[in-house]
Amino acid sequence: MPPPSLPAARDPAAAVPTTAARRRSSKEGGATAAKVHPAPAEKEGKKMGAAAVAGGEGWRLPEWCSAAGVAGILRRHPLPALFACGLLLFMAVEYTIPMVKPDAPPLDVGFVATQGMHDAVAARPWLNSFLAALNTVFVAMQAGYILWAILFEQRPRAAVAALMMFTCRGMLGCATQLPLPDEFLGSGMDFPVGNVSFFLFFSGHVAGAVIAAADMRREGRVALARLYDALNVLQVVRLLACRGHYTIDLAVGVGAGVLFDTIAGWYFDAKNADGKNAHCRSCQCHKALLSH
């Protein structure tokens, strides 16, 4: 029996396809090629190639470790780059700064910055009582707004955040009791009224103002929120000048206000569980209180 290719060899016309056949074949081949997708193995091959470089064939520096890569990071991400420089700076400071002696008072930069105001207030008891009274009014404004939000507007997020914050503050205050500064200027007009004892870490005055201002921003009351922020800054200066809080108490108070406001938002998002009330922006978080 002749091989299959022998008839084609005997008949040259059969071996050469016609022009129409070639065109038809090329069109069909092109359409087939257009429908062909790369196999998953080919896609994974590129990823596996990078892993192979790191695992089997040797390790190479990432692209961002080059001079051009570092320049690109500095241009696109200046804030993380600044924090990286801060990490290196304070690592050097922490490992070389002399420690405060056990019998010495705490070193507080905020106290140093407000020394002049402290001297002025200490020399004028009436001014100390006046500033304390103003601060107590501001605390009442915070509490009044948070109560208004839950009682009249039926938005409990700020109230729940305040409850979480003050509970955590109480636990931390019991866990680590800091000594009252020697230069503390107490007043019967201060909050808590009556010049009674209080927790230093962290500042509930500051955290409450942050929670109230955050709720105002969610409701579009931007001007009122800015007013509370400005009063909060003045409150910080007054507390430092009167030695009512250490600087770390005030700084953590800001963070605590943001933290517990965020946690309260997560709580009501989970309770509503419908995806429509992200961070209580639709003012529907009272439904979670009533339905669970």
Helix-strand layout with pairing:
Blueprint: H1 6-10, H2 12-15, H3 19-35, H4 40-55, H5 67-76, H6 78-96, H7 109-113, H8 115-122, H9 125-151, H10 157-175, H11 204-218, H12 222-241, H13 247-272, H14 286-291
Instruction: State the end-to-end CA separation.
Output: 88 Å
Element pattern in H and E: HHHHHHHHHHHHHH
Shape: globular
What's the Cα radius of gyration?
A: 35 Å
Q: Which blocks of ≥5 consecutive residues have pLDDT under 50?
A: 48-54, 277-283
Overview of this structure, please?
About 5% of the residues have low confidence. The protein is an all-alpha fold. It is globular. Helix 10 runs antiparallel to helix 11.
Short characterization:
The protein is mainly α and 292 residues long. The protein has helices spanning 6-10, 12-15, 19-35, 40-55, 67-76, 78-96, 109-113, 115-122, 125-151, 157-175, 204-218, 222-241, 247-272, 286-291.
What attributes characterize this protein structure?
292 residues, mainly alpha
